[in-house]
Design goal:
Layout (H helix, E strand, L loop, with lengths): L5 E2 L2 E12 L2 E10 L4 E5 H5 L8 H15 L8 H14 L18 H4 L2 H8 L7 E4 L11 E4 L1 H5 L10
Length: about 170
Amino acid sequence: MQIKRKYARLEVKSEVEPIFYGKIKHRRMLCICDCGKEKIVNLNDLNQKKTTSCGCYRKEFTSLKSKKLNTKHGLSSSKTYNSWLAMRRRCLDKNSKGFKNYGGRGIKICEEWLNSFESFLKDVGFRPEGMTLDRIDNNGHYELNNVKWSSAKDQANNRRKKQSYA
């Protein structure tokens, strides 16, 4: 029987000692994978395409599949995404340092942005270098016509007045 030399990612180097399951003899091949690893595989599994690599293909496939399932936008390490997260934290997380000045005094996030970074990005755009998210009306909510990207100086000039409790 002629042995095909290449099976998907595996190339047959040589035949090794067969293995017996009861009275049935299974021919085995020493193969080298495209990634460089060696693997002993039953010839029948190679012919039936049950084994196509040393295992590297499965790792690559599941890794890619996982990335696609868990990443909608591919911007989770961007400054824009971090600004969106910080906005949510200030308004929603009672344990956040800034909660009392945002969510604690009733500042809300519009429904479109609340759970959708994509909507936020579409409406506000990417965060320019050196800028942070600012509300135009400090007593208003985080919504389309009330946010902009501002410099630290602009934000300092847009603070609400301290209330005196006399």
